[in-house]
Design goal:
The protein is of the alpha+beta class. It has 17 helices and 32 strands. The strands form five sheets. Strands 7, 8, 9, 10, 11, 12, 13, 14 and 15 form a nine-stranded mixed β-sheet that branches. Helix 14 packs across helix 15.
């Protein structure tokens, strides 16, 4: 609680680089620094801090922006600086606030009559005087010591009753400062050439300015991290219109628990691939920091690193500090949470007991590539099991015996929906067998004492009956059911793919144009074929066939009492809807146009249940939500268990329906298949 006294003398001590522990200060002004027009650039906030005697400018670390946006930090409030550093930026001293705590809300006026610390004490202290005390700063502070030297230029003083020091106009951050010369032939030396002429830093130089990985951001040009390589990918190649290329990636982990993925392209592959080894610790400096692509990484970091020509990597000498860096870091999800909390293609960390190990299988992809896979069943303390599919070397060189039941942790496994919800490994997935982790020891104790006797329910079978599977029954929960108006009202499919169940009447099936496409007759191909003089040619199979196969691609309108929407449906749903294959309907259109129209008309104004996947797609620069029906079932064909599931769901989720009324509705539904049950 604030007692009316600020930490007098704290601003002067901070300015001189003297020790100052958790000073109590007043925020005289808060001003937003607009972000530059660059992707991934966050806004910054400038503060004026006062101890009642002096005031000084400060920059709030970007991860603390929420304190200003939520109005926790505001003008004239009292705060405690729990973590900060003070750097010299363009010959001026700027405080970088890393951790701050609001002690008292906004006061009616300023405490004391503070003056500018630079005016009172003089110019910026010398480099030696500005050095921090012998006690090293915390991990987060260390990461901002050099970052501050590249902070955006501060704006003029605020209009809050006092004048902050004026500042010489500087060019925008990241732009070279203009130089003038009377010599018309003067050419500034390119920055890249200057960097290449600089000698490689020594181990001592790199170790003296180590940043925590969590502090890295695109503002920084000079930084060094000390990290362990936790995983390394194989070298991958690609070919496109611009030529051929190679790449590899490594995952890095430091002593503070920060993780980041680093990728090297082409020349960097030759330079660093053999140098970087898994479980070794390295000093790494220089490289491009940009926004991370979460689609290909499960690492909890908004940024990723790209090795460049100026990147320097040196193996860290074996020392006691290397032991402080863990070999791997996980963020585990329970198996039963994979179905409800994660979307298809999400990357997750999971740990469990391998209760079944399948044999190696050799298969061929649709592109004709030979693949090797193996499936294992994983169970955890949720008494749920999930099938994990291993590929390539991970499948062939299994790190445990097929007869064993080890504890296995998967880092970065991808959620799949092939024949129900499951997991599959990708090139970046890391597998740890019997890891020395608290979760692993707990799992082993549970399985040996009771889990080995529990019949685990497969996750795939749970999803088969719900929205996630595309086969099996049609039992769904109340939470999955939507009305047509909710598609728009709840913005379904806008930010991510949404899966839900609709029920309604099909009011129209577009049949003026083409309801099907010509497909390859090879089973499992289904690619579109083009007609040539000698037959139908499939580019994928690289074959020409005398006949093709028609497959449905339908656009149909459906509605309920709240609204309507257009849905798309494909071959399997078209056969259910029209009662004929696309080839049969195509022949009917040619031979009996009247019967063709009647067949389409008979399929309308019937009640169906739809499993729908909604997501945003862009066509001709216009973003639209497309709703695809992945399963279509005649409402009259729904079985007793589906009706029972709906009624039980009403009771389980706490709807305002008592058990007696619910079962009365079930009875009426069984007798008349009344639509009111939904």
């Amino acid at each position: 609680m604030f007692n009316g006294q600020l930490s007098t003398g704290a601003i002067a001590a901070i300015y001189r680089g003297e020790p100052c522990h958790a000073p109590l200060l007043q925020v005289l002004d808060v001003k937003k620094i607009q972000a530059q027009a660059q992707p991934g650039t966050a806004d910054r906030y400038r503060l004026i801090l006062s101890d009642g005697v002096h005031y000084q400018q400060a920059m709030l670390a970007s991860q603390l922006n929420g304190l200003v946006k939520d109005e926790i930090i505001a003008n004239k409030c009292v705060v405690r600086l729990n973590e900060f550093i003070c750097n010299t930026v363009h010959s001026r001293r700027i405080v970088i606030v890393l951790q701050i705590e609001m002690v008292n809300g906004s006061l009616p006026q300023n405490v004391g009559n503070p003056t500018n610390v630079e005016t009172a004490i003089g110019g910026a202290p010398t480099a030696q005087a500005a050095q921090p005390p012998a006690q090293p700063p915390s991990a987060a502070a260390a990461g901002y010591q050099q970052a501050a030297s590249h902070s955006p230029v501060l704006p003029p003083a605020p209009s809050s009753g006092f004048q902050a020091p004026r500042q010489q106009q500087q060019p925008p951050f990241g732009q070279p400062q203009a130089r003038t010369s009377t010599n018309p032939t003067y050419q500034p030396r390119p920055q890249q050439q200057m960097q290449q002429q600089q000698p490689a830093p020594s181990i001592g130089e790199m170790a003296s300015s180590v940043f925590p990985i969590k502090s890295l951001n695109p503002y920084q040009n000079r930084w060094t991290i000390k990290a362990r390589v936790t995983s390394k990918s194989d070298i991958k190649t690609w070919t496109n219109a611009k030529g051929d290329g190679r790449l590899f990636s490594v995952d890095l982990l430091d002593a503070q628990g920060g993780e980041i993925r680093a990728t090297g392209f082409n020349d960097a592959v030759d330079k660093f691939y053999q140098l970087l080894e898994v479980n070794r610790v390295y000093y790494i400096s220089g490289g491009a920091i940009k926004g991370a692509n979460k689609k290909f990484s499960s690492i909890k970091n908004d940024y990723e690193l790209t090795f460049e020509a100026r990147t320097q990597i040196q193996l860290a000498p074996d020392s006691a500090t290397n032991a402080d860096i863990p070999t791997m870091q996980f963020s585990f999800s329970a198996i039963d949470a994979i179905a409800g909390q994660h979307q298809k293609d999400d990357l997750v960390d999971v740990i469990g007991i391998v209760i079944e190990t399948g044999s190696v299988q050799n298969i061929q992809s649709r592109a004709g590539k030979d693949l090797v896979k193996r499936s294992v069943q994983l169970v955890d303390m949720s008494a749920r099991s999930v099938e994990v599919t291993l590929w390539g070397q991970q499948a062939e060189q299994l790190p445990w015996s097929e007869a064993d039941k080890p504890v296995v942790a998967f880092k970065g496994a991808k959620v799949s929906e092939f024949k129900g919800r499951g997991l599959t490994t990708v090139s970046s997935t890391h597998i740890a067998v019997n890891p020395d982790l608290r979760e692993a020891h707990a799992l082993r104790g549970w399985f040996d004492s009771q889990g080995g006797h529990v019949s685990a329910q497969p996750l795939s079978s749970m999803a088969q009956g719900g929205i996630d599977g595309e086969g099996g029954g049609f039992i769904s929960s109340i939470q999955e059911r939507k009305t047509f108006s909710q598609i728009k009202d709840e913005n379904l499919g806008r930010d991510k793919q949404d899966n839900f169940v609709l029920r309604g009447l099909i009011t129209q099936i577009r049949h003026e144009g083409t309801m099907w496409y010509t497909a390859c007759p090879t089973k499992g191909c289904n690619k579109k074929v083009t007609q040539e003089a000698t037959g139908w040619h499939c580019v994928k199979c690289n074959k020409t066939y005398p006949q093709c196969e028609e497959r449905y691609v339908l656009s149909l309108a459906a509605a309920d009492h709240t609204g309507s929407s257009w849905l798309s449906a494909f071959n399997d749903q078209g056969i259910v809807l029209l009662g004929k294959t696309a080839s049969e309907l195509a022949r009917l259109k040619e031979s009996q146009p009247g019967e063709f129209d009647a067949s389409v008309q008979r399929a309308t104004f019937r009640q169906y249940k739809f499993k729908v996947k909604a997501r945003t797609e862009t066509w001709q620069d216009e973003a639209r939500v497309k709703c695809r029906s992945v399963i279509l079932v005649d409402w009259m064909a729904c079985d007793f268990m589906d009706d029972l599931n709906v009624v039980v769901s009403f009771v389980v989720v706490g709807a305002a329906v008592d058990a007696r009324a619910a079962f009365l509705r079930l009875s009426r539904s069984i007798l008349s298949k009344s639509p009111s049950i939904c």
